[in-house]
Input
Amino acid sequence: MRIIKYLALIYFFIIGHDVYSQYSQILTRIKGTVVDAETKDPVAFAGVSWVNEGMNATLTDDEGNFIIKTKDTASRIIVNCEGYKNKIIKIKVGQVQEINVSLDPDVKTLSDVVVKAKRLKYRNKGNPAVELINSVIAHKSINRVEDLDFYSYEKYEKIVFSLTDFDEKFTNRVFIRNFKFVLDNIDTTIIPGKKSAPVFLKEDLSNVYYQKNPEKKLDVPFAERMVRFDDYIHKQSINTSLKILYKPINIYDNNILLLTNQFLSPISSMAPTFYMYFIMDTSIIENSKCIKLAFFPRNKADFLFQGNLFIVLDSSYAVKKIDMSVNKNINLNWVKNLDIIQEFNKVQNGGWMLTTNELAIDFGLNNEKLGIMGERVVTYKDYQFDKSKSDSIYKAISKKQTNDDIENDDVAFWEAHRIQKLPPPEQKVYALLDSVKKVPAFKHAVDATLLISSGYIGSRRPIEIGPVVTFYSYNPVEGSRIRIGGRTTPHFDKNIYFDIFGAYGVNDAKYKYYLGATYLFSNNTIFGFPVKSLNISYQNDIKIPGQELLYAQENNILFSFKRGINDIMYYDRTFKIEHLNEFKSHFSYTVGYEFTQQTPAGALYYNTIQYSQHLNNPPYINISQIDVDFRFAPHEQFFQGKVYRTPLIGKYPVFLFQYSYGNKLLGNNFNYHKLMLDVSKRFYWSFLGYSDVTFETGKIFGVVPFPLLDISRANQTYSYQPLSYNLMNFLEFVNDEYVALFAEHCFNGFILNKVPLIKKLKFREFVTCKILYGGLSKDNNPNSEPDLFKFPVSNNGDPITYAFGKVPYVEASVGVSNVLKFFRVDYVQRITYLNHPNISKNGIRISLKLDF
Output
């Protein structure tokens, strides 16, 4: 288990999910707590500064905690607070250290009266610091660079990951010995006094173009170099992961999206309501005289920053520099420390251009000493402000942006184009990681991790077997189900993929199988965006009416456990051919043809007596249709896994339109048109959390039996499914027109983080409401049309399938995520249609949810 732990540690680090660094070029960093020497209570808002270096000063927060750092050689700090004696402390230069400071009360005796200073209550009214920040907020529009008519520059970005704090005992462990040559590549510049070994490096060069009217901004990469792990994880997934962790930070925006959470900027229009501000002193930064303004969250559990603003001391009230971090008490997973440093320079014609941009994060996977650190540094050059770009030029630039051939491993090229020179340990990373990939222990470790995460065996071979979670499952119709399958990999062919499985049900004694082939028209992987492909498949298998699994395997052994009665199924023999075409604009379409021969299974029966005149009393129905889907998801990002390409929810809406056409001329038993529209969007509410809202509507034109009606998505498993009705039974509701609304709000711990004791658990609270209302026309209601299949009934004659009445179906839930950092638990309550037989009125549902 210990070996597996370190295998997972290295793998998570490699894919870029768990790693980022801090404290670039910081010689000395002090973290500590200030307390009252007598009562041991924390001393809030005590001043901490370097002796003879007043510029680098800070205040303790309301729990007496502080962090102070310097690139100078100062060796003493002074701590002072009203009502206490000043205290000077010697520290070790060039090291990271923690100290506890006890301040002695400054008590003065006058006769028999003892006078002791009281803590003053913080107020906005009459506070010069608040007046200053209000002026900064009022001048944001003229200081942000977006106020310029045009700018362009060249950008160099470096992301480096390092293992830190490893000792001789760790390096001598059996598994680690195979990689000792990596740990010998020591770097002491990230955190002086600590060992760090760079193990991943990515560099990018790009040109950035911006024009104000009409507003356009393009970031056009022209060179990229990175450590590659193509046999294990796709390059696109690494890039997406890095973009999620390192989203652009603009402090002039009211809200800052960081690590999938939204923080309120310290210069937001709402900031004075939620931050406290203190004027510290004045300082000179690059010939600009500035006021140093310290800021802290009023509530340390809210998603807010703390740190220092340096405000230019003139009428512009511009931010010259910001140095900020996050409070350790906020509900942020995996993060030990996080630092942001940005500096700005004034440019011609107004505006302040970002010149230094560092984001450093210390991620912690466990409490062991070994750490995983990382650092992102962005530098800029060749600023241009006096050019005007026409629309035609921007279109030409946009075409360059579609060029994926930007990889460049030429060492001389990077030496010439880097704005910052790499330190020697980082220069060795590319060669070292090529050596790591040849170590058998590394290959075995990653194969084991991929088996756990994707379920496939043999990822580096032409054919991989899996998913292993489907090898055995159970349902009431098949009984025990045995399945074996596999698929080809790019080692077999980069453009043609095959997918196959065979299964056998013990109870029904039937064989099932699937064979699919996909041809890629683009030089990409099967899930790599953008996809242009043609897929042909044939499947003979059993299906559950109304069940739609999102990013989960059918026949997963975990879904063998279901509530209630679930023996209503179909046997489907389906031939399908479809073409998928995705564009860089994130618009896509799918065109396909599908023919299904459907036979009822288990307790499901098609009452065919009424159809005898038309279909010669068939034991099955033929469904033959043409399908066309259109999807538009602006700025969408994906994480490309081994089994699925998972879209990542962003702030932009996603539109999906589906059309299906069935006709007897195509071999269908029925004539119909089906339409469906789905719109989903995430709304961010700053530190109050976010809301996910999905609206869906559909309509069927034509006369069809209930298997071809819209069967509402139901879920009878014990897992929580966000876009299904978790207390609805399979095939409980059918309709030929409907509207649905899914609304969920995540408070991100805003409520529970303020409750004593519970806040230590760092839960995140959810509330959800799902509403579905549909209608069934007289032509499609078997109670009115005797030629239609009758709705199914149970063994005792009770109806199990219904049309909607006068009220919608409603269910609501409350839940908490971040349980053990991996799980979400929901209590779900059904609100309407409580008189239906064999239903669950409430229940507990569990799902996997991993987030920062």
Summary: The longest strand covers residues 196-211.
